[in-house]
Design a protein that fits this description.
Elements: H1 2-11, H2 13-23, H3 25-37, H4 44-74, H5 100-146, H6 155-167, H7 176-191, H8 204-215, H9 218-226, H10 242-251, H11 255-259, H12 261-270, H13 275-288, H14 294-310, H15 313-333, H16 337-351, H17 359-374, H18 380-393, H19 403-420, H20 426-443, H21 449-461, H22 469-482, H23 489-495, H24 508-522, H25 529-532, H26 535-544, H27 547-561, H28 568-581, H29 583-592, H30 600-615, H31 622-639, H32 643-652, H33 655-664, H34 668-681, H35 690-698, H36 707-723, H37 726-759, H38 784-804, H39 806-813, H40 818-835, H41 845-861, H42 870-895, H43 903-925, H44 933-955, H45 963-990, H46 999-1019, H47 1021-1031, H48 1035-1048, H49 1067-1084, H50 1099-1112, H51 1116-1135, H52 1139-1153, H53 1165-1181, H54 1189-1223
Helix pairs in contact: 1-2, 1-3, 2-5, 3-5, 4-5, 4-6, 5-6, 5-7, 7-8, 8-9, 8-10, 9-12, 12-14, 13-15, 14-15, 14-16, 15-16, 15-17, 15-18, 16-18, 17-18, 18-20, 20-21, 20-22, 22-24, 24-27, 26-27, 26-29, 27-29, 28-29, 28-30, 28-31, 29-31, 30-31, 30-32, 31-34, 34-36, 35-36, 37-38, 37-40, ...
């Protein structure tokens, strides 16, 4: 191949180029370089080759353009167009009378046409690719000529050919390889500073820019940067440059350009090209500040600083007086703290370069006129932002000022910082503390000692005792930062003990930070952490604080109590000393010491030492035994994951030792620790402990209210499950529950007999038993029933806890004793519900365990699709049973037959009802109770009615809740509201055309609105706002339920929405009407005797109504249905002659919900139907009233409705009557 090329090269340039193109670009490329670089200046080809190149390139480009035009006309989109290869075929006119044979012939012709078009297209593409390959060869030949080692080719001779390629770059926009080759050629021409290089940039530079933005490769950014001097040749004021300017501005938001140093240098270079480009670039940077990441903003800061440094005249003025001044002002008056911080990152590019000539003066000129004034304004956000800026630019000084002026300005800055340390705004105090420590850290050497002492004293004495948590936290963090300057150590060593009280701070973050401070000073020479915080205080925190703080304190104490520099035996002795000194702290120390660097071998030795210490005859207190066993259990938990150490622990523990350990463990905590050791290390040898474990879980008085006992019982459960004793435990539970259930039946029968006997004597009966978990007594002396009952509460809690955790629930559900336990819980739950109104306190653990067990049993034995499953029916029976019991209690409470109802009894009932409602929701969520939705809705309505009734009693003074009882009750009420709304949501979701929505759902929505009203009216605005937080999420469901009846039955009568209401007309509609009238009176300054008064401001309900209006106006179909419901309510008011209700509701509908003047009534068919019933009755009622307040309310109501009546209903009725008359 090379010989053939060499011979053609000797012949002529034209033959050489022809041969090269025939051989193909890839195959001929290596040979071309060798042959061209071997040419001597005396060769004839040196002079003829440039001319031939220009001729061949020109011909190829012309051919390519011609092929492209042919491709456009002969492409697939124009199959019938003319072509240079074949003439167009004549198209046959279609006719429906052609024979089937003709149709088949035509289909064949059409297929031939399509096939011919595809063939032509393929030929065109092949011809174009051949031309492109030729141009690649020519371009490479020129490149080799340009890079010839001897420079034998004249640049002026080659320029026409290169110019031809460059000027047609746009023509080859789809040929990426050829474009890259031409761009490389132009780039090489520019680098070598060859003649005519200025004419080779207009097309190549936009291509390189576009490529760098598209492909996002670093090499392309490098190439653009190398071309930067060429940009000076462009006229950026000319309109034709807009496309290039857009590419340049796009580079400002390219992550690659911002990341690379060459990219940032190039972007800074652009600022010197044109003032208009400077403006556009700065505007782009400004637009990116609110959204930019830290790295992006820092890149912009570097770019602007480089641009400012290189700029002169108008460009520098634009950067200083326009951009930077706006940045300073914006950093002070930013709308948010994050936005201000982003702006300060831009300014940081100058602040970090303040040693550069002119920067210090620039910062002073920009900041000084605004910063001191802003530090003293009323707006706290402005003061905070200005303080941030002052700390960043500190010390702000004029380099041209005298020494006295500089000192005065410095004292002014310190004075303002000290003043802001006592600012009213906590956020400002936080910034002031952190900023003061930063300034002291950075400029300790130049700050007068008096100011240093003053600032540190104020921070440690005042800010460390600040009422705001964040200020105290910033104090600790600031001191930690200040310790980074060694010159501060001398003074801080003396004053740091003033921070010691923060180890007991109520805020977790502050306690954690103070331990971080202790860890820091532990590594500083001449500092002693125990002089800052006493060791006893540290041990107390280690014992009682959260795990993270405990782990940090362990890290702090590890070198003292478990060092690696001494023998393991001595380390164990130190650790034992720690446990004896503070048992719980020592146990926590053993929990974290492995993760903080203690060796497993040493911990294994420590475990043996602790076990031997418990079993030894030495005098060890019970508290110390608790700590030792807990420490041993923690060590086991850490080492058991490694087989080697687990085996060593097994060898240490024998059955005899286990019994001895359990015998030595006198407290529940110690026994739970032994169980934990056994379950982790030796579950197979734990049979000797079974009876002891059963005692622990069977006698758990007060378990449901004691978190510590709960943790202990869970450890015992863990051991029982690991040892396979779960069936034995549940059998014991079932026996104890059955015994309690039998006692409940006997007690209930006794009380009923006593009540029947005493009722004949007309004497009040005070209930003989007040079941209380808090107190282990009844009215009278102790009885075995009360002991059994209290024990059953702990068992019920354990069943609930076991069922809630997946790892234990499976084991529980396999037990054969569950049925017996379930039936016993059923009896006890009924006893709780029936008797709760007679008790001062009752626990809901029985009811929760009963419902949870019913749910799990149903889920275990059934599938969601099996509606007739026996277990599903049992679930519905559970709901029915609980609902019946509870409703019976509601009725008894309402009739007051049970004697005086107390706030405690109401709290009991609310707790139990909330648990039942929670169970209903869980059942419905699992798709279990669609068939008994009506029953669930009815129960929920009864419950809401019970709450409203008793809230009214509390407001009237018949029930006087203590604040603590009221808070507990309200938390249950808030949960109950959520559950009731969730039930409504589930009912709405499952309602289809085949199963229409129950009217009870509509009524429940009304009841829930009434509940919001009642809570705000009877408990106050504070509780009203709290219930609003729960109600907001469910308002769409409540609103949909209000209008659902009208959506399902649009032809229903006007009063159908209220036909099913058992608790009377909805209170919230009455209140809504009164609010509308009250607001009208306030706006009109009405002083008449007929003024409407409100029992409360109803600020919460007003917010609910505002949200309701906003939601309804966003959905026209729901608006139509709810509006029809409201109009039905106004019709009820008209019939009852309650004209205030009529007036208020109509004012709300016509003035706030739907406005006639905007034509919003046109598509509201349901509302217009309701209005068609309402308006004639209003006209009929008007003449019957005399002149008075009622007549005035009715007339005003008619004035709102009449335009709507005439616009939409009257005309339609008139037209219909005329049509009927014509038909007749």
């Amino acid at each position: 191949m090379e010989k053939r090329l060499r011979s053609s090269l000797k012949s002529s340039a034209d033959e050489f180029l022809s041969s090269a193109t025939k051989l193909g670009f890839r195959s001929v490329k290596p040979s071309l370089k060798t042959l061209i670089h071997s040419l001597k200046p005396s060769s004839d080809v040196v002079s003829s080759l440039p001319i031939s190149l220009q001729h061949f390139i020109s011909e190829s480009i012309t051919l390519y353009k011609h092929l492209s035009r042919s491709n456009d006309t002969d492409g697939p989109s124009s199959p019938g167009a003319s072509s240079q290869f074949t003439p167009p075929t004549k198209r046959v006119r279609r006719s429906s009378r052609r024979t089937e044979t003709n149709k088949n012939d035509e289909n064949e012709n059409e297929n031939d046409d399509v096939s011919g078009t595809v063939d032509k297209q393929t030929k065109l593409e092949k011809a174009k690719s051949e031309v492109i390959e030729k141009l690649q060869v020519f371009g490479y030949v020129i490149h080799m000529c340009v890079t010839h080692p001897g420079n034998v080719f004249s640049a002026s001779d080659l320029l026409p050919a290169v110019q031809e390629l460059h000027d047609n770059l746009v023509v080859f926009e789809l040929e990426s390889n050829l474009l890259s080759d031409i761009a490389c050629l132009c780039e090489e021409w520019w680098k070598r500073e060859l003649a005519g290089r200025d004419s080779l940039i207009s097309q190549s530079i936009p291509f390189l820019l576009s490529k760098s933005l598209t492909l996002k490769k670093k090499v392309d950014v490098h190439r653009v940067y190398a071309f930067r001097e060429a940009f000076v040749l462009f006229d950026f004021e000319d309109e034709s440059i807009e496309d290039l300017k857009l590419l340049l501005v796009r580079c400002l938001i390219s992550p690659l350009f911002l990341k690379m140093d060459e990219g940032r240098r190039f972007l800074a270079f652009l600022f010197g090209l044109s003032r208009q480009l400077v403006k556009e670039s700065l505007a782009m940077i400004r637009s990116q500040i609110p959204f930019g990441r830290k790295s992006m903003l820092e890149a912009y800061a570097d770019i602007v600083f480089r641009a400012w440094k290189a700029a002169e005249g108008e460009s520098r003025d634009e950067i200083e007086n326009e951009f930077l001044q706006q940045m300073v002002d914006g950093s002070i008056h930013a709308s948010s703290a994050s936005f201000a911080a982003s702006i300060r990152r831009i300014l940081g590019g100058f602040i970090s370069q303040r040693t550069t000539d002119g920067v210090e003066k620039l910062i002073f000129n920009l900041a000084e006129p605004v910063i001191f004034r802003s530090l003293q304004v009323a707006n706290s956000d402005v003061r905070r932002n200005a303080l941030h800026l002052l700390i960043d630019v500190f010390p702000l000084e004029d380099p041209d000022a005298t020494r006295e002026a500089k000192d005065a300005l410095l004292h002014k800055q310190f004075f303002l910082i000290e003043k802001l340390l006592l600012d009213d705004c906590p956020d400002i105090r936080v910034v002031a503390v952190e900023g003061s420590c930063r300034i002291l850290h950075m400029f300790w050497e130049i700050i007068p000692s008096s100011i240093i002492t003053k600032l540190i004293t104020k921070i440690l004495d005042d800010m460390a005792h600040d009422a705001c948590n964040n200020v105290r936290l910033s104090t600790v963090n600031g001191i930690i930062y200040l310790l980074g300057n060694p010159q501060s150590h001398e003074i801080l060593k003396v004053v740091l003990p003033r921070l010691g009280h923060l180890i007991l701070d109520p805020a977790f973050s502050i306690r954690s930070a103070i331990v971080d401070l202790l860890l820091l000073i532990k590594g500083i020479k001449n500092f002693q952490f125990h002089k800052v915080v006493h060791l006893d205080v540290l041990l107390s925190n280690l014992a009682n604080d959260q795990p993270l703080v405990g782990q940090k304190i362990t890290k702090l104490l590890l070198p003292s109590y478990f060092p690696t520099t001494i023998t393991p035996e001595e380390a164990c002795n130190r650790c034992v000393t720690l446990i004896k000194r503070s048992p719980l702290a020592g146990a926590r120390f053993c929990e974290f010491c492995l993760s903080e660097g203690a060796s497993p071998q040493s911990l294994s030795l420590l475990f043996k030492a602790l076990i031997n210490l418990v079993l030894s005859p030495t005098n060890v207190s019970s508290d110390q035994i608790d700590g030792i066993l807990l420490a041993a259990a923690n060590i086991c938990s850490n080492l058991v994951s490694e087989t080697k150490y687990k085996a060593a622990l097994k060898d240490e523990l024998t059955s005899k030792k286990l019994m001895s350990l359990f015998a030595a463990a006198n407290s529940g905590q110690a026994q739970a620790s032994v169980c934990n050791i056994v379950s982790n290390v030796l579950p197979d040898a734990a049979g000797v402990l079974r009876q002891e474990c059963m005692k622990l879980v069977s006698k758990c008085v007060g378990l449901s209210d004691n978190k510590e006992k709960q943790a202990q019982v869970r450890l015992v459960h863990k051991m029982i499950v690991s040892c396979g004793w779960i069936d034995y435990m549940l059998e014991e539970f079932a026996k104890l529950l059955q015994k309690t259930a039998d006692g409940c039946v006997e007690k209930y029968d006794t009380e009923r007999t006593r009540h029947n006997t005493s009722s004949g004597k007309k004497r009040k009966v005070k209930h003989g038993v007040k079941v209380s978990v808090k107190s282990n007594r009844m009215n009278g002396k102790k009885t075995s029933f009360n002991d059994d009952y209290v024990g059953s509460v702990g068992i019920a809690w354990q069943l609930k806890d076991l069922l809630k955790h997946s790892d234990t629930s499976k084991a529980v559900l396999r037990s054969k004793s569950l049925e017996s336990a379930f039936h016993a819980l059923k009896v006890i739950s009924e006893f709780n519900i029936v008797e709760c109104m007679q008790c001062d306190y009752i626990n809901n653990s029985h009811v929760v365990a009963y419902t949870l067990l019913s749910l799990h049993l149903s889920a275990k034995n059934s599938t969601p699709d099996d509606k007739n499953n026996h277990d599903l029916k049992n679930l519905e029976k559970t709901i029915e049973h609980l609902a019946n019991c509870t409703e019976r209690a509601y009725r008894t409470s309402a009739s007051r037959k049970s004697g005086k109802v107390t706030p405690c009894s109401i709290t009991n009932m609310v707790k139990l009802s909330t648990s039942i409602l929670n169970f209903i929701i869980d059942s419905s969520t699992l798709d279990r109770t669609q068939e008994c939705q009506e029953r669930c809705l009815s129960f929920t309505r009864q419950y809401v009615g019970f709450i409203i009734l008793n809230l009214r009693q509390h407001s009237h003074g018949l029930l006087e809740f203590k604040e603590e009882d009221l808070k507990e009750t309200f938390l249950c009420l808030k949960s109950s509201f959520t559950y009731a709304a969730k039930l409504l949501n589930l009912v709405l979701t499952s309602s289809l055309e085949s199963s229409p929505l129950s009217p009870e759902a509509h009524n429940l929505a009304n009841d829930l609105f009434d509940l919001i009203i009642s809570i705000e009216e009877h408990l106050g605005c504070r509780y009203g706002s709290l219930v609003l937080s729960a109600a907001k999420l469910w308002l769409p469901d409540l609103i949909l339920a209000l209008g659902f009846l009208h959506i399902q039955k649009p032809s229903s009568s006007s009063s159908s929405a209220f036909a099913e209401t058992k608790f009377g007309f909805p209170s919230w509609l009455l209140i809504l009407a009164k609010i509308e009238i009250f607001d009208q009176q306030e706006s009109e300054l009405d002083d008449s005797d007929e003024k409407v008064t409100l029992p409360s401001k109803f600020s919460t309900f007003r917010k609910v109504v505002e949200t309701m209006v906003e939601l309804l106006r966003g959905n026209q179909s729901v608006l139509d249905a709810v509006g029809a419901f409201l109009l039905s309510g106004s019709l009820v008011g008209l019939k009852k002659k309650d004209f205030e209700l009529l007036y208020g509701v109509l004012h709300f509908v016509c003035m706030k919900l739907v406005k006639h003047e905007n034509g919003e009534w046109a598509d509201l068919k349901l509302m217009l139907e309701s209005l068609q019933q309402l308006y004639p009755q209003m006209e009929t009622a008007a003449p019957e009233l005399g002149d008075g307040h009622e007549k005035e309310l009715l007339e005003k109501s008619r004035s709102w409705v009449e335009p709507i009546w005439r616009s939409y209903i009257h005309e339609e009725m008139k037209e219909k009557m005329e049509t009927d008359f014509c038909d007749t």
